[in-house]
Amino acid sequence: MSSKGVNTAQELAKLNANKESARHCLLAADRFLKDGEFQNARTELDKALKLDPSNGYIYAFQDRINYFEELKKKEPPAKPVAPVPPAKPAPGPAPVAARAEKPSPSGPGATPKPVGAEPKKPEESPAREAELQQKAIEEQVVAEEQRRRELSERAATEEQKKKEIEARAAMEDQRRRELEARVAAEEQRRKELEARLAAEEGKKKEEEIRAQQEHRRKELEDRAAMEEQIRKEMEQRVSNEEQKRHELEARIREEESKRRETEARASGEQRRRELEMRAEAEEQKRKELEARIAAEEQRRKELETRLAAEEQRRKEEELRRAEELRRKELEDRIAEEQQKLRSLETKAHEEERRRKELEERAASEVLKLKELELRATEEERRRRELELRVASEERRSRELEERAVEEQQKRRELEERTAKEERRRKDAEDLAREEQLLKEVEAREAAERARRESEMRAQEEARRKEAEERAEEERHKLEEMRRQVEELTQALDQEKKAREEVSKHNLQNAVKQLRTTMQAAWVNGAPIEQVAKSIHELAASLSIPEEVEQSVQREVKLEMYSRAVKEVIAKRKLLRNSSSTLEWIRKVYQVTVAEYLENESKFLLDLVADQYKGTILLISKTIGTKDDITSRLKSAGYAVVQATSPETALEKIEKVNPNLILSDAEFPNGLSGVRFLHIIRANSKFNFIPFILVSDAGEPLQIGASDLRPNEGCMQRPLEYEELTNLINEKLTHFREYISSLG
């Protein structure tokens, strides 16, 4: 418990103990007062006043002691008067005068009118005086008892207030502990986040270092392999030159032997000179060859020196990159530290705002009760702690700023080092210009590679644009499909709301009664105004909402209109090329053009379906199979409406109102058959329609047979039409049983 809670509890306990001791002193003073020991009563009263100065009963008790003490002082002169009146009748009226001068608090009985009768019976005056005093004492005791009750009630009220203050202090303490726990949790979470970020940063650095080392190792291996290849080529070239030199020396020796043989054979001076000249020429060739070999050796050494310089430059470049990477890491770390600093400042502002709220609350509590000053002191202490915490956060921020300055200094040093590296790089570029002739081939190859890369980028850009166009087209298709689904769902939700209203208010029987009445009224067309008014009153008496009434009226109107059209067609009164009869029927039943266009396909299909076993909505991606199934189903006595995709079927299902849906399980694009089944399930208007899924052989069905409802089924290709017909008849039988149960 905090020091504030301890101090408050101790002071409240001390206050309660003082009040209890003061109450005991008052009880003791009351006992002394009854015994007539007024001095002891005053002593106890002084003790109670020291213990509880705020008790108003103490001052009232002092008046009570004074009153009884005065009564006690008046009693001795009244007692000896009783035997004196027979000898001295004159003094008899004196007590009456005394009583008249100072009447009792109970008042009217102390001043009787028949004064002349008193001399006849003077012995009754002391008794009357004592009786009046007794009555006054009793009334005073009653008043004191009443005052004691009020004081006890006031003490109970004070005790209740004290308990409320203690409860409020406990709540504030609990709230403070929760706030401290929340701050500690936030601090712990921040530390965990910092540790996690540090771990992630360490892992990322290790991965980057590992990747750099791997890349550097591969580069070194490639460069070592290249240098090994160059060394082998140089060794091969040196060995070739050495072989040529040996061949030339052998040829020179042969020429020398020939010359000697020639000199031995020929004696002519001219021949010898020619041979000497030839030998000199051969010697010159040999020297030239040796010079070429020395030049090649010199070029090899220069190449090795250049490779060493390149290796040194590469190492320096790697060091520069490492320094750059370290600089970026330092900048990222500085940014993170600044972000943490901002978050800490935000948290400090939040703490400051909370502190101000607590101070305002403490101030309001101080205005209400003085005991809350301790709480305000505690809040002040908390504010100081928060200020200390903010100061520590500011110190941390200053440290971070100093660290940022140090990092800035390091970054400047790194930039200077980078400038030096740049100068070295320029020197290396100067050396590289001397190798321009050797790199022309590489430049041509690089240009060729750049050209190929540009061509590949152009092709990639074209493919990307084509993919984006295709994705945009797909997105438009999906939006159109989504819009169609939303429109269908909205239309179905309107119907669902009316059904939910019926179910919500348990109006099935009332709606059935209203429907029966409307059917009787709409048999021969729209009812007259009086009948329509009576139907509306019937709906109101059955507590049917107005929107449900309108929905039922629309369904009955369209149903009666459809029945009238069928009767006209059955009686051969309607010609195919005449629309006047249908126009007349629409006017009779007050069917609007929009309602007619909305339900035209349904009316016509209902007329056709009367000659068939039922209407089947066939959704298939395979045209040949679809036509084959359609012809077989039609020959079996079913009306078939075709759709190439679930999206098209969603548009037709409202108009067709099929008795069964037969759909493929998978489609190339858009909704699948299983997804379409889930959409139908979710729609309360169509979830009772039988649904059969047809999947290809070996194609896994995304829904298990155990998950299918009684009005749902599945089959696999190749289809056995007898089995398909039996399954359709089974599901349609279930459908008709369900419809008859609703009727």
Explain this structure to me?
This protein has 17 helices and five strands. The chain is mostly helical.
What distinguishing features does this structure have?
3% strand, mainly alpha, 743 residues, five-stranded parallel beta sheet
Layout of secondary structure:
Blueprint (H helix, E strand, L loop, with lengths): L2 H33 L2 H14 L5 H22 L14 H9 L22 H142 L3 H100 L4 H62 L5 H65 L3 H14 L7 H13 L4 H25 L9 H9 L4 H17 L5 E5 L3 H13 L3 E5 L2 H11 L3 E5 L8 H10 L8 E5 L16 E5 L4 H22 L1
Parallel strand pairs: 1-2, 1-3, 3-4, 4-5
Helix pairs in contact: 1-2, 1-5, 1-7, 2-3, 3-5, 5-6, 6-7, 8-15, 9-10, 9-11
Proportion of strand residues: under 5%
- Point out poorly predicted stretches: 78-124, 572-578
Largest sheet: 5 strands, parallel
- Could you tell me how far the N terminus lies from the C terminus, measured between alpha carbons in angstroms? 74 Å
- The helix tally amounts to 17
Q: State the shape.
A: flat
Order of helices and strands: HHHHHHHHHHHHHEHEHEHEEH
Radius of gyration from the alpha-carbon trace, in angstroms: 59 Å
* Portion in helices: over 70%
The class by helix and strand makeup works out as: mainly alpha
Oligomer: single chain
Q: Mean of residue pLDDT?
A: 77
The largest beta-sheet arranges its strands as 2-1-3-4-5
Please give the number of β-strands: 5
